[in-house]
Give the backbone structure.
Amino acid sequence: MKYFYIFTIFLAFNTSATKWSESSVDDPFKSGSKCLVNNVLSSGSYVFNWPSKYDQIFFPYTSSAAIWFCKDSGYISFMSDFDNITEEEKSKISTYLKANPQRNVRSLISKLKLIDVIYSFRKASPELSNRNKRILAYLYEQKDKFEVANNYRRAALTEIYELLKTDLTKYKRLEYLYVAANYERQLGNTSNSDKNLTTLQKEIESIQTEELKGFGNYLSKLLSDTPLIKPGGKLEPVIEVVKKEVTPKIPNKIDTWIAESSDKCRSEIQAIYLNIKPMFGPHIERTIIEKSIDELLIIRRLFIDTGDISQQTFDDYSLYNGAVNFSSKVNELKAKRSPLCINEINNFTDKLSLDFSQHMERVINDITTDARTIRDNLAEQGAIKSRKAIDQLLVDNSIRSLYCYVRDYDVSEHEVCPEKSLPFKKTFKKVQVDILQFPLKIDDEIEIQKLLKGLSSIGI
């Protein structure tokens, strides 16, 4: 009955989000090595309504964090099976890992491929084997590998029919009948799916124990979804929901300014805005990347030379050429305005320029906040800590501009993205020259190597 108790415990435990914590465990295949892994901190009943319910696979196994991987040895396992290794299994796995060093296991797909190989050396019970296939099917589907996912489901379905011939708990029988109905539908076998649904309905109606009725009621609510499953593609059916009336979107102030203009001038004002709008993003990005790093290099050099950060180093960001470019573009467009709309266009562009200036002021303020904090705390922190703080800020800002977030299913990682940072090569060249002349005073060697890798990605 352990499955039922797990189910009811989760139902009784409501939280707003799943949470994980990092920890380290001993690597079973490399003495003295540790494996960085994740443990569940919290979860709730909402996980039983996630799309994985159609595979009857639930959190934490819907997350890639439930896959524990040891970088040093290459060993990989689902978290619940990590330690349960027999000597025979250990020998086979060790032989494989020595012959096949795992040097690039980072993506979810690479982990799924490896975990399938490792489990082929382990003696899993029929129920565990079936669970693993359904986990793999669900996770492969999240990466749009539908054919691979459905091959695992096909194999799991074969096992389910064999398991249904054995002496199962009532809970497992209900679970397998439901999954079989879904998989048959997804594989295009409608009549077999209907038969399983009919059998499942009878089984639910025959439940005698109060403790199992909760699970029966849960499955009953899902039965109407199964006929909506389409062959191939995702297992999750498309369920039409009556759309609620949506509150109209509140227009932003620039849209309001355009809407308030006269009919005769509105299209001309709209055209001016569309010409200017692209300058907002690029200009702000350029300011954040170039100005923040340039100013930090100035602050760093002054601090190394004088042991202080002068107030004048924070003065007059308005000379940055991006602001001039914006003003020039506005004036260029105003010169082409029609005589009838001179006043309205002047009024619009004046408000737009003021809004742009105010926005840039906030951006510049964000850039200088950390450096000002270091200056204000200089007396308390002392020269060594302040130098470390400046260097850490330089490294953080540089890495932020050299790397992009890349999302792999439910994990985001930093990866170098030269297409983003190459336009600022001159700025990053200054960083390289400066840190070669005056080496970084931070203790995190990993961060330093990350910075150097980012610089190398753009040929520095």
The CA atoms of residues 56 and 179 lie 7 Å apart. DSSP finds 17 helices and six strands in the chain. The beta strands are 19-26, 34-42, 67-69, 76-78, 403-408, 411-416. The chain has a mean pLDDT of 88.
